[in-house]
Amino acid sequence: MKTVLILFFICITSLSNAQFLDKLGDRAANAVERTVERRVEKETTKSTDRVLDTIVDAPKTNKKEKKKKKKKTANGNIIGGDPVENNPKSSSSKKTIGSLEEESENQVYFKRGNRIIFNDNFEKDAIGDFPAKWNTTKGGEVKKLKGFDSKFLKVTAGSITNIELTKPLPENFTVEFDLILPADHPYRRPGIGFGPKPEGMNNLIANPNSMTFDIMSAEVGNGYYELSYAEKELGYEKQKIAYKAPLNTAIKMAFEVNGKRIRLFIDRKKMVDLPTQFKPEYRKSLFFTSITSGWTETANAYFYISNLVIAETAGDERSQVMKDLMEKGSFSTNAILFNSGSATIKSGSDLILADIAAALKSTPVLKLKIVGHTDADGGEEANIELSKERANSVRNFLVQNHGIDANRFSTDGKGESSPVADNNSPVGKEQNRRVEFIKL
Fold first, then answer.
1. Which residues, other chains included, contact 45 with Cβ-Cβ below 8 Å and sequence gap of 6+?
2. Confidence at residue 68, expressed as pLDDT on a 0 to 100 scale
3. Can you give the pTM of this predicted structure?
4. d(Cα 438, Cα 440) in Å, to the nearest integer?
5. d(Cα 255, Cα 205) in Å, to the nearest integer?
6. What is the structure's pLDDT at 43?
7. Which residues pair with 289 in a beta bridge?
8. Which of 112, 144, 304, 308 could disulfide-link to 180, CB 3.0 to 4.6 Å?
């Protein structure tokens, strides 16, 4: 700018001294004028370019200035300027630091209890009906879903659905069920609660003496995908874990309660572990609800459940197998489940069978007679044949999956002829459908 002003005054001076230029002659005057014009044009162009550079290339200039300001310490770390993570060179040269934790197999896994006290897959309930072993405040129906063998109970929005317990849940027990969240609805929030049965609620937390869990899966707003749980001592601000549940898929939900401790497993992965929070009053009821809120999308929210199994845990199963075999000469369990009217072993039975296999491997000379038992539903002869087939299935599973020598087994079936409980009640039937292992 200074140069432009100087040239401007030169021009003024040149014009004011026209008489002097005339004396130099026309040629000299013309030469001076041409020189002045070139100088003015040149300096004006430079100044204009600098102004345009400042306007158009401002970000570029700022980056250059930042680079100039960057300094390096003796070990090469950059101080000032852009953060290191925004610098590609720095990111590529950053040393990867591995985890401090050793890679090892998780030793905590879900294990079903050894005595089933409740089991329902709605196989005997009519489609469109509400299941006989359950209660609800707001309806619900048994449904058949595409691509699934089992029937499912549809739990509707704001309803409270609970099973009929004849007495509180035991000190140590497990709960398993399949949960399906539908993809054809934008809001899904299944809730599971332990405690006194709540009445007339549209929100899972209705009683201070309850422990609750719920899964949020909602395409509402920015989307909500999480697992939440709450209990009086934890506060009603729910504890939350990021969890995006799959849709139209059977999610394997499993709770394991040992005294005051409760663990939640989802698809065999431990998600929650509370060592001291489970209280005696929580054993009074198990209930489900489809949680609603102020959003209009929640008014018709629903989900499906099936294959509910509640089992009591009586000590370590492997030691119990050997203890009963050595002291009583036999071990009996109803934790081995079969498809209805079939000898096909259902998933979830593999854990108890693994414990039996471990007991056999620990005592190589041990030989067993496997005896199947049924409840009184169906014909007597058909039940005897079914019980024999189920005993054979158990033997084959131990041989094929655990490498136990087939010569260590013999099999038999007694059908409904040796009940251990009343066949007129659902609980009694559960206990009568069992497999017995007799020491030879």
1. none
2. 46
3. 0.63
4. 6
5. 19
6. 53
7. 160, 191
8. 304
In sequence order, what are the residues at sequence separation of 6 or more whose Cβ sits closer than 8 angstroms to the Cβ of residue 1?
47
What would the mean pLDDT of 210-230 be, rounded to a whole number? 84
CATH code given to domain 115-312: 2.60.120.200
pLDDT tens digits, 47-84 = 445 544 444 444 444 544 444 444 444 444 433 334 43
Residues 6 or more apart whose Cβ sits within 8 Å of residue 79: 70, 71, 72, 73
Instruction: Look at residues 360, 359, 349 and name the one whose alpha carbon lies nearest to residue 404.
Output: 360
Q: 241: helix, coil or strand? A: strand
Q: Which residues contact 296 (CB under 8 A, 6 or more apart)?
A: none
Query: 104-108: long-range contacts at Cβ-Cβ below 8 A with a sequence spacing of 24 or more?
Result: 106/270, 108/263, 108/270, 108/273
Judge: domain 317-439, CATH 3.30.1330.60: yes
Go through the chain and tell me how many residues it has.
Answer: 440
Distance between CA 223 and CA 188 in Å, rounded? 11
Alpha carbons 223 and 227: distance in angstroms, whole number: 14
- Can you give the C-alpha Rg of the chain in angstroms? 39
- C-alpha–C-alpha distance, residues 196 and 168, integer Å: 10
pLDDT tens, 261-304? 999 999 989 999 999 889 999 999 999 988 777 677 777 889 99
Query: Which among 370, 386, 375 has a CA at the least distance from the CA of 416?
Result: 375
